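Bumping my old thread because nobody answered last time. Still need a sequence for this structure:
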């Protein structure tokens, strides 16, 4: 019998790369320290679950079969609300009462937070979902990190960061020697953890190395709710508004305020998808003074009004999901 058993609760459309990023370090660890870890997959009803890439994954049980593992990990991704059930929330709360070590991958932390078991804990999730996570769960100490371990809770940004998280967990149980051996086998180096980098650099994302442009973009990101005007943005880097216009045209092929507006609308998309804020509150959080102004701007960008876009509207309209009670 393995020393440490892990149960993975698969939520429909979970991230396969995050799931196997968590499983593979356990498999490799068993090569060096046989029978140290075991794992199994469960779903809400005991049926196979399709990942976000459409590939179905078989499970060995349902919520009723979870028992009391050493760790229970909730695996989710896109539109986690659509696959969430009241039974999942009840199961998570039961595990917390039994003092089971709880973990969440990608948007799995949303489900832990919805169940109320992350209040007062440090936690993270996928970077795209962080704004909505902060807004929805103020009692959670949300951090931008590859992963967070706080007492008997562990959360992860998803993707390849799942490997970083599991290596840290293995090290906490069996020492750094085993963790390093596993990392070597996976050809996985941990410089990202040390740097705390959870997404591509601003230089990579925006395709420019101009420090003035990057400083202005950073100011925009910090002032979404109360947007700065073009003069204030120019003052950030000590140039005239005309100079800033030329810089943005040369490097980003957009005007500064148009770029700023696009950033605010992208933030609005994230909040609509990953928070429970009302459309009006999303409008205010992204610097739009009226709901009508926000709706017009959002529709022009996304092709649908914000009320239809929210939370994977196409999935819900197909009848695949119904609202749940927490």
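Sorry it took so long. Here it is:
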């Amino acid at each position: 019998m393995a020393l440490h058993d892990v149960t993975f609760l698969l939520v429909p459309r979970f991230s396969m790369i995050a799931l196997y990023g968590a499983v593979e370090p356990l498999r490799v660890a068993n090569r060096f320290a046989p029978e140290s870890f075991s794992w199994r997959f469960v779903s809400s009803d005991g049926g196979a679950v399709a990942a976000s890439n459409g590939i179905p994954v078989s499970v060995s049980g349902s919520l009723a079969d979870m028992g009391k593992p050493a760790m229970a990990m909730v695996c989710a991704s896109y539109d986690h609300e659509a696959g969430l059930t009241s039974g999942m929330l009840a199961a998570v709360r039961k595990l917390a009462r039994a003092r089971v070590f709880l973990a969440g991958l990608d948007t799995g932390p949303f489900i832990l937070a919805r169940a109320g078991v992350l209040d007062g804990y440090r936690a993270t999730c996928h970077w795209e979902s962080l704004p909505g996570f902060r807004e929805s769960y103020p009692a959670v100490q949300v951090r931008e990190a590859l992963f967070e371990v706080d007492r008997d809770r562990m959360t992860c940004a998803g993707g390849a960061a799942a490997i970083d998280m599991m290596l840290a967990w293995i090290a906490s149980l069996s020492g750094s020697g085993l963790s390093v051996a596993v990392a070597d086998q996976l050809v996985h180096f941990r410089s990202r953890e040390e740097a705390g980098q959870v997404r591509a650099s601003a230089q990579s994302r925006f395709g420019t190395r101009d420090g003035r442009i990057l400083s202005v973009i950073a100011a925009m990101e910090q002032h979404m709710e109360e947007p700065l005007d073009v003069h204030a943005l120019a003052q950030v880097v000590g140039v005239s508004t005309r100079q800033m216009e030329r810089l943005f045209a040369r490097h980003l092929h957009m005007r500064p305020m148009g770029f700023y507006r696009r950033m605010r609308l992208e933030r609005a998309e994230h909040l609509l998808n990953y928070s429970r804020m009302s459309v009006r509150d999303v409008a205010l959080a992204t610097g739009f003074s009226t709901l009508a102004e926000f709706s017009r701007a959002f529709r022009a960008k996304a092709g649908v009004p914000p009320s239809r876009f929210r939370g994977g509207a196409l999935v819900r309209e197909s009848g695949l999901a119904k609202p749940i009670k927490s």
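The longest helix spans residues 256-274. Let me know if any region looks off to you.
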